[in-house]
Amino acid sequence: MDALRSVFRTIGHEIQAHPVATLLIAAVLLFAALGGAAQITSVTGDQAFTGDNPTLETYNDAFDRGSISVLLRGETTDPATLRAVARFDDRMSSVADVAYVTSPADPVREKYGRIPDSQAKIERVLGSPDVTFVRVVFEPGLTQPEERPIYTEALAAEEWARFPAGVDVIITGSAAFSAQLSELIGQSTNQLLGLAVGLMIVALFFLFRGVRLRLLPIVAVFTGVLYTFGAIGYAGIPNSTLTSSVFPILIGLGIDYSVQFHERYEEELESAPPREALPQALSGIGPPVFVAMLAAALGFGATWISTVGTPAFVWFAQTSMFGVLLTFLAGILVLLPILTLYARFRRRGVGELDHHDFDGDGDGDGDGPEGGTTDPTDSDRVGAFGRMLGRTSRTLAANPGIVLLVALLLMGAGFQAGQGLDTLADTEEFVPQDLPAYVDLQQFRSQTGGGSAVQYDVLVTGGELTHPEVLHWMQRFERVAVGAPLIEGIDSPATLVAEHNGGEIPETQAGVERVLSTVPERERAQYYNDGVAHITVIGAQDMSTDQTLSFISNVQDAIRFSNPPPGVDATLTGTAAITPPSVVEQIESRNVTTGLGVLFVFGLLLAYYRNLVKAVAPLVPMLFVIGWQNLYMAALDIPVSPLGASLGAMTVGIGAEYTIIVMERYYEEKTQVGVSKLDAVETAATRVGKAISVSGMTTVFGFSALTLSPFPILADFGYLTVGVIFLTLVAALATLPPTLIVLDGLAERLSPLLGGRGTDPEPQGNA
């Protein structure tokens, strides 16, 4: 601990001696960050929730053909319409990475060699449908960034094809949805950043009163956010729905760090010249804020570890970890040198005040107005609010039994309420329900009876997959599967072979091969490709998340009960089958994630303090909050989302900052001669209570930007985090003082049994 204080004191000396050089370092890092930010990509939809999976990769490379579907409604058999379809078909067929295009123009041109001028002739081939479709099918294995240019080209081709005014054209499909969602994520990220910064300015202007340059923390934290953009760009971490929520969070947390630095520096300037104030301030506040920052990083680290295998959550955790580290760094490299330069300028501007008159009150004593007062709770900078916090904390600390019992009962009620909370696990409910691409997709599904949304995929590998024994197993699998709930049909290579062989499976493999040779290559590639086979399973429409999980279980049971031949492996795969269990698992493992967060932060505190009481005390209020947050969620009817499931670990990591700072100041005050525990509690709450209240409320303002997100999952998370941050602030000021009194007293009673070692640190002066 003393070593860390010494390190921060040295950093303070260097910054106050070389403020301009420090700012130049910050500028160089900012320039480098801009290069990394330009490399950021985005991943959307279910692909953000599916990690490395060899079976899925094999399926994607062989069969997963993304597509664009064009829905045409109105005068679909009019010659002008069909000519426009043909123009669209021809143009899209020549686009790179497009495998083929199917359209109603194909059978008409096959029949007549061209598009006839007669609508009657067209209707002899197509009938007279009010709705028809064009399907642009991609080469298999394309990534989302590779698919998006095809969608862009489809938009241009639709305009170029000049569809008649009487035809409604809707372009939808996976690429369209991904492209629009990616654009919305980028817009949302920028909007949330702007909102968070705007709310922070308001919060600092009204809450951070009585200090000079009170808006300066915004500059520091925004620099830290830009550093974070650069870091994730260089690290290859893409932007996604969940990742975009990180930046308002970082603004909130980064403001915390900068406000703490700023507030302590102003406090030290009351009794020391600038050249001494900065080292003293940084040695005093640097270690606890540094430990708090590491605690926040470890809270996000717990989310990372508990969600390995689900990229969206891992990216969220990684971005958050980069962010807390870099916003902390920006507070040191940007905020402190500017404050140093301003303090120097201000002293010169007032004609070099007497070197003892550091506070500028004209009395030459440097101890504040009226001179002579040394009561740390009686400073003008503390104000009525600070003194009220101090007196309240003293009252609560004097009655620890009642306070802790009430907190404990509320925590228990919260854990009970948590069992009845609703969940948000359907990834389609994560996105704005009025997103044009989503609305178009829903219209397409309604016209096609569900479309691809009800199709799931089984990848078959190993053995001779064209052997009659394998095809007979596929028929057996179909009989078993279709009898199970929610499974409505099977389309397999056995279906294809029997269809082209009079309803029978040939008796030999050579016979199967002969039948397959008569099947058009495009059709055959949907069932056999690259030595693997593909079975399509049709599920019921509009399945809920629970029904989807039951459907997946039923398919897996049917595979097992149908008994595939030796050496043949059949696996249900595809993002539609992998994502729901992954999301639900994240929600169900929230207690594990929270437990990891508590364990990590406890280990950090124990390693730093080497004292069990100091490692446990900051966590007790956070444990209360973990229970209380369930009551808050139940009151506002906020469901448990996979993002919200990580909040327990985040609460421990983020909230530890407030409790650590209060505890550090408590023990610092206890070293003073003649100061009782209650005196120390009151002084600590008075001097740092206002600072953490200001930083806590500015954090709340930053997080509240999330409530305005167009993404439902982020808006819910915003409401949740706003409430939880407020609860952590209340817990730090209301339950930590009595916790410290109880644990400190217990440690003193046990001290003789432990060889006389108490909890009091060595006196450290004003540091």
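Second entry:
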Amino acid sequence: MRQNQKRTFPTWGIIALVVVLIAAGGLGYVFWSKQHDEKLAQKAVEDYTQALEKQDYSAMSKMVTTASLEKIGYTKEQMIERYENIYGGIGASNIKVSDIKKEKGTDAGNYQVSYTVDMVTSLGQLKKQTYKTTLEKGEDSYQLDWNTALIFPGMAADDKVAVSTTKGNRGELLAKDGKPLATEGKAWQVGLYPVALGEGEERKKNLSAAAEAFGVTAEQLEKVLSADWVTEDSFVPFATISESEDRPELKGIVYQETTARTYPLNEAAAHLTGYVGEVSAEDIEKDPTLSTGDVIGKVGLEKAFDKQLRGKKGGKIAIKDSEGNEKEVLQENRMEDGKDITLTIDADLQQAAFDQLNGQKGSVVFTNPSDGDLLALVSSPSYDVNQMTAGISSEDYQAYADDSDSPFLTRYTARYAPGSTFKTITGAIGLDAGTTKPEDTSKVNGLKWQKDASWGNYFVTRVADVPSVNLEQAYVYSDNIFFAKEALKMGEKTFLAGLDKFIFGEDLKLPMAMKPAQISNDGKLASEALLADTGFGQGQLLISPIQQAAMYSVFANDGKLVYPKLTDDQETAEPKQAVTADAVATVKKDLIQVVENEHGSAHKLADLNLPMAAKTGTAETVEKENGEKETNGFLLTFDAESSRYMMVAMMEDTSSGKVVDTMKPLLAKIDTLIK
């Protein structure tokens, strides 16, 4: 019998196998270690550059080697302070790091790192800066060697960054004849004269009187007086008032003349010009080129044209050595004054129209319908725009905000139901469609009408009980029933097709906030009641006075709709043929009768002996507690001969008759106001 024999490896074989396994393990460890180091180094670079982009200087300070800081005599706190002072001083923002490169260094485990930084300063976009440093390996992480050259390349530890800025003059807003609407004018700085305030109870009494007079608190005055630079003989400014404001004689209060943005027409053009004010933190966040103390447009055209009016800030950012010698210019801009902007507004007409409203809630829009120039844009009641820019007290501002007449509301851009003035468009569309014929008459008895019993409790109502009216008489008497019937004759499809040739849903590209005109909430006229209501300017129609003036321009231009403009160089859409010249001629002839006919709703204007066409409108709005509805009154009128002007006037909470009475004295002076 054979016996099993054990096979054995020779000793040298076992030794060789062990050696191979150890070598393989060593190589694997080396490979793993390199990969691990690579990941740690990459993470260190990413964390540092991300903290730089966020301007988180505290986080950055934890990622640098202590040895590199000690080498230049810095602590982590001093590093943080240097970034805050320098980057804060130049208004650094929008920091973006790119082109990050990482290469093996000469020392084992270390890396050479470079990256590029883009940033915006208070002078604008800074040219790209390229940085280089070393990544040092620690026990379980990498850290950057840091010195001040990582703030700006070439910057030594004791160098400084100097910033100088110059601001140009703000451009002016000018009327068409060059009269200033927003300009540099005189104002008064209000200040405390500490030595004259007295002491103890007398001082308290004087500060309290000053606080009450200028809408601040005594605590605020105490704070400005506590500044380090204040001495007994200092002038300590705390407010600015316009030239027209009262300057009360109070103990311890002195005034110094200064310059400030002023608005010669003040309340008459406040909604149009708007006003300027110092930038807020939010403003600076939106536009990093701004810095504390800068003045920008806050509302109105001051805001819309702010960049053109503000011009370009000049200045220089430079690195200087410890002795003040300039080493390198990082950024330099030449200062540019802001541009003047000339408007189409006629300053005299603007003032006269505002005065005519006399504080009543409403608006007046004057245009040159031939070229679209906006000659006057008035909203009433208004507010003291000079007070706003000089620095309004919180109490005075709140009084405006709480005023039930809404003085901050820009009424010429707000949308309203146009009422019977819109019958001009309904008639023109019907004439073009062939459904409205000048000779046809509508027979109705009484002051209310409905198509049939399917309308239930809904009726169209009118003011005058005229048994039979044709188109001309319908305009003269402003007959709602006639135009409701004409809309029903056209039907939804035809009426909408005609309305679509106007400006519904369009942005007029004017430098002011204004929602597009709407036909209805969904753009349709699906129900008969809504179709009928729209025919006489009610329903869900919403059109601002400016938009109305643009639509009604067809009656001064043989059917062409001319888009409005506010500056001579403003680009507008090309005029479009909204209705035919024949339809316009018929409607225009009838609108002249609205003035000349003794029954016409604007007949009170006849004794002005002007070539005038007009249409009035009284639009119902919300229902009051007593069941009656509030109304807004409108008056459309234009030069029936030479089309020199068109006016759309609106007054809230009243009838068109009151608007005619109010506007008549203004129209009586139209020949002197519009040459």
